[in-house]
């Protein structure tokens, strides 16, 4: 196998006509990293992946793989390999010929390329199916063949466009574990596009959260979970409540926030004292229902929805000018003293479980 290579994007922009799909993003993906590009539909993640692969021209900026500038190189000469969402297997070829295809294009002699294809099928535990056609395989098996085909050129980086989206939920979780294992085994850089927060959290060493052609945050899953950089990240990842208000200065290491109904909240960080708008994020899993002490921060609101989730219960609370404030409470403590929709309950959290969110420079 080839060595892993670092990928660097330097102020990369993609325009389609006058529309900006990717807006001057800069990113360094260290060699051997499992990187997930995550974001809602249309945020520019596929365009970014396709520019790294060379399937899409870069409008501005540069892309480096290791020390090589690859911006202008054709896909086959970049040292990257791409696995497509639909797998793009040839229906009329058996698995050996499917996997060997790019070597055939490169003029590699038949026995040599078939041997290499068999080796790749072995790596993916598909050698027992070598003479089958793609239609004779399950979805998960087709995906393994597509991976074998992408890996036959010994790429330094493997690029995966929504690789799990065609699989049913059960297989998705199994193949997810296999992808992670494969990346660890090969040690090469993986860049994986997904719109699933759960998938990115489960797989990535580095999550890159994109919105509207820009990077909102690039960090480890734990950093994204514990310290979302912006209100967009906090909302998109869904583990925090975002409360918007006006800065009322700082005291004792806490940022003070005036919320619209006249209430005061606090969070870890600093706040401007001039009433400028700021957002804070409150972790949904740290919110307490009917707190036994009064030390925490909080408000009294009306429960608008309750969802049972097995290990936990998710409550939506409206109050203090805040709609759909989410509290995830442990199921045992919830059922010790259940609450119901329409009931008014105090909710509370510690200042350490709320942080001030940043804003993207415009
Ligand atoms: N070939 C194209 N021509 C014109 N506009 C395009 C083209 N490809 C993408 N776009 C636009 O660029 C923006 C970013 O698209 P892109 O496919 O990169 O987003 P995405 O985050 O991968 O979305 P999805 O999850 O839906 O695939 C979108 O507004 C899209 O409509």
From TrEMBL:
Keyword set includes Cell division: no
Gene3D superfamilies the record matches: P-loop containing nucleotide triphosphate hydrolases
SUPFAM superfamilies: MOP-like, P-loop containing nucleoside triphosphate hydrolases
Pfam families: ABC_tran (PF00005), TOBE_2 (PF08402)
Ubl conjugation found in the keyword field: no
Top-level taxonomic group: Bacteria
Database matches in PANTHER family: SPERMIDINE/PUTRESCINE IMPORT ATP-BINDING PROTEIN POTA, SPERMIDINE_PUTRESCINE IMPORT ATP-BINDING PROTEIN POTA
Protein name (record): Fe3+/spermidine/putrescine ABC transporter ATP-binding protein
Organism from which the protein derives: Devosia insulae DS-56
